[in-house]
């Protein structure tokens, strides 16, 4: 395996034992970080000159529906019910295997382009094993690291049909994938289950789905977006906790309406919580759960969620999560009648950890990704420090979290393979252009079949 020495202007490892370095060096051996420090004087086969760059762990997107890439921006003024009626009850029903492949291929390329090396792809429009296989193909062909969370379609029930809320996860598909191409957890794309959970399914379905995931050794994740009076199973996570079905292998997304008792049970049982702050600020009154999870001793996790409504750029999600966390701390402090805070209540480094370490913990990959300590996977992003919007760099953490964006991403390495260099994806340009055109046509066809038209108010 080739040894590559990266000479860094700034090296942010996010590993407390390893530390961060100005003018540091990182030695990469194959798909792993071999050594980190100053003046390593190590034998190597190649040198990457990143002396004018910030070198950091790849960002991790803790929750995204990659298949929706072709529908970007169509719901920029939607409220929650609009999303479900337009997407799940209509446009999603027009998608087939090729549509999912195209959305995942172009969407994953876009994530790599913007500095993301790993995603949890909550793929929740699946109607067949063929659709799932096509979606996985789209991810794998890009070289992104991904947890493919197999979800199910949510069409409106026709007269006499059992509604999706009462239908357990399809065992046959999970068994076929787990015993077939997704049998190993050492792959770049691994399998998980995107289940209904008690907000969108009956208690019997929620319990059966988590048991199915555990039977096959899979991580599971569920949406929690409803007030108690609108949940299919109100306060269902308490029941799951009592049944011993909440643990580090289950992740809850959103949860803004969950009360303190239920949230404490979730965190105390080791389950993780992912906030998608941009989407949640867009359409919900209760706060994103970042600060509440943090106050309970949990590690927050963040993700993009729905590109039809918000940007797919994790830099913006990370910054929004930090600003909302700071604002809510100041708000609560003032509401309690306390003196103004003398120091910033949430540090910038924390937000970067939510977007790396926290998200890696959600998917059980924190022994491999999230930091750049020796032995970790070589998932590395390099940001140009001389770009006008970030120059000059005084502290690399502040620059990453509060100043930088996708436009500053120069180089992306995933599993030791360079996927972007010099600001350009290392992908066949004609192939990508063809796939982009086909994806746009795919999305436009689905919207036309759904009689949906984009209209700004």
Return residue spans where pLDDT drops below 50 for at least 5 consecutive residues: none
Which percent range fits the helix content?
25-40%
Q: Work out the number of β strands.
A: 17
Strand content: 15-25%
Structural class: alpha/beta
Globular, elongated, flat, extended or rod-shaped: what is the shape? globular
Rg, nearest Å: 22 Å
In whole angstroms, the N-to-C terminal distance is 56 Å
Task: Please describe the biggest sheet, giving its number of strands, its sense, and whether it closes into a barrel.
Answer: 9 strands, mixed
**Number of helices, where a helix is a run of at least 4 consecutive DSSP H or I residues:** 14
Question: What's the average pLDDT?
Answer: 97
Structural write-up:
The chain has 14 helices and 17 strands. The protein is an alpha/beta fold and 457 residues long. Strands 1, 2, 3, 4, 5, 14, 15, 16 and 17 form a nine-stranded mixed β-sheet that branches. Strands 6-7-8-9-10-11-12-13 form an eight-stranded parallel β-sheet. A hairpin with a 2-residue loop joins strand 15 and strand 16. The model has no long low-confidence stretch (mean pLDDT 97).
Topology of helices and strands:
Blueprint: E1 3-11, E2 21-22, E3 25-29, E4 32-37, E5 46-57, E6 59-64, H1 80-88, H2 97-113, E7 116-123, H3 129-140, E8 145-150, H4 171-178, E9 189-195, H5 197-200, H6 203-215, E10 220-224, H7 236-242, E11 250-254, H8 260-268, E12 272-275, H9 277-283, H10 290-295, E13 301-302, H11 314-335, H12 348-362, E14 380-384, H13 396-403, E15 409-414, E16 417-421, E17 424-425, H14 429-449
Parallel strand pairs: 1-5, 6-7, 7-8, 8-9, 9-10, 10-11, 11-12, 12-13
Antiparallel strand pairs: 1-2, 1-3, 3-4, 5-14, 14-15, 15-16, 16-17
Helix pairs in contact: 2-3, 2-14, 11-12, 12-13
């Amino acid at each position: 395996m080739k040894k590559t020495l990266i000479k860094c202007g700034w090296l942010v490892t996010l590993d407390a034992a390893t530390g961060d370095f100005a003018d540091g060096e990182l030695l990469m051996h194959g798909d792993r970080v071999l050594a980190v420090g100053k003046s390593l004087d190590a034998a190597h086969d190649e040198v990457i000159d990143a002396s004018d760059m910030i070198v950091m762990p790849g960002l991790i997107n803790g929750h995204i529906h990659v298949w929706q890439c072709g529908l970007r921006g169509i719901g920029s003024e939607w409220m929650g019910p609009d999303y479900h009626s337009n997407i799940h009850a209509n446009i999603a029903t027009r998608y087939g295997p090729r549509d999912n492949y195209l959305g995942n291929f172009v969407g994953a390329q876009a994530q790599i382009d913007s500095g993301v090396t790993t995603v949890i792809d909550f793929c929740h429009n699946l109607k067949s094993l063929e659709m799932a296989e096509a979606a996985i193909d789209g991810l794998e062909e890009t070289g992104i690291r991904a947890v493919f969370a197999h979800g199910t379609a949510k069409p409106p029930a026709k007269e006499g049909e059992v509604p999706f809320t009462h239908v357990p996860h399809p065992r046959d598909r999970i068994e076929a994938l787990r015993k077939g191409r997704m049998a190993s957890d050492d792959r770049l794309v691994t399998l998980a289950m995107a289940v209904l959970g008690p907000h969108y399914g009956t208690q019997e379905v929620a319990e059966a789905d988590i048991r199915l995931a555990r039977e096959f050794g899979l991580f599971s994740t569920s949406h929690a977006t409803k007030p108690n009076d609108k949940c299919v199973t109100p306060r269902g996570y308490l029941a799951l906790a009592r049944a011993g079905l909440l643990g580090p292998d289950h992740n809850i997304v959103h949860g803004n309406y969950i009360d303190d008792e239920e949230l404490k049970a979730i965190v105390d049982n080791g389950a993780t919580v992912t906030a998608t702050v941009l989407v949640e600020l867009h359409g919900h009154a209760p706060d994103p759960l970042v600060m509440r999870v943090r106050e309970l001793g949990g590690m927050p996790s963040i993700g993009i969620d729905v590109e039809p409504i918000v940007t797919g750029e994790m830099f913006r999600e990370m910054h929004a999560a930090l600003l909302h966390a700071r604002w809510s701390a100041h708000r609560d402090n003032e509401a309690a009648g306390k003196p103004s805070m003398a120091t910033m209540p949430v540090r910038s480094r924390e937000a970067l950890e939510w977007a790396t370490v926290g998200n890696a913990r959600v998917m059980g990959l924190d022994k491999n990704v999230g930091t750049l300590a020796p032995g970790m996977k070589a998932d590395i992003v390099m940001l140009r420090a001389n770009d006008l919007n970030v120059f000059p760099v005084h502290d690399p953490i502040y620059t990453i979290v509060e100043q930088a964006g996708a436009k500053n991403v120069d180089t992306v390495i995933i599993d030791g393979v360079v996927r972007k260099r010099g600001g350009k994806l290392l992908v066949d340009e004609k192939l990508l252009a063809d796939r982009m055109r086909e994806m746009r046509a795919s999305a436009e066809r689905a919207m036309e079949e759904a009689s949906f038209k984009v209209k700004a108010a």
